[in-house]
Amino acid sequence: MPRDVLYLLKAEFTDGPGQPYYCPDCAQITGVLSYFPQLRYSLDIRHVDFARPRNEIVALIGTENQGCPVLILADAPFPQASEFVSGVHNGKSFVSGAKSIANYWSATHGISRPH
Question: Which of 2, 40, 60, 115 is the right S-S partner for 74, CB 3.0 to 4.6 Å?
């Protein structure tokens, strides 16, 4: 059974001089996954480098949609969650951003909503 693919940035990355960074939105989604570990069974979670282009994502949903976090849906979106879908590229629906992804999971997996 195909699973949705969740792309997150790796935990530490550089972007110029100074100390490394982390992505707050990716950290938020990582927190949601720790609150609701059952979600992990329905996902293929992949961590990518900060540097662009993020070729693996670009190949699926295009250059303009390579931001993280992004959830690429294996199947057509659930009708009750279609309002959280950010777009479609080459027939692949995707959800971008921590709050939209969390709301999508709330509508499709029954977890609590972000406040």
Answer: 2
Total-model pTM: 0.96
Burial class of residue 95 (count of CB atoms within 10 Å of its CB; 0-12, 13-18, 19+): buried
Q: How far is the C-alpha of 78 from the C-alpha of 96, rounded, in Å?
A: 16
In tens, the pLDDT along 69-93 reads 999 999 999 899 999 999 999 999 9
What single-letter DSSP state applies at residue 22?
-
Q: Which residues pair with 87 in a beta bridge?
A: 94
For 31-45, the pLDDT digits (tens) are: 999 999 999 999 999
Q: Would you state the structure tokens that stand for residue 52, as one six-digit string?
A: 């662009």
Give me the residue label for tokens 């972000």: 114
C-alpha distances (whole Å) from 90 to each of 12, 27, 37, 60 are: 31, 28, 30, 8
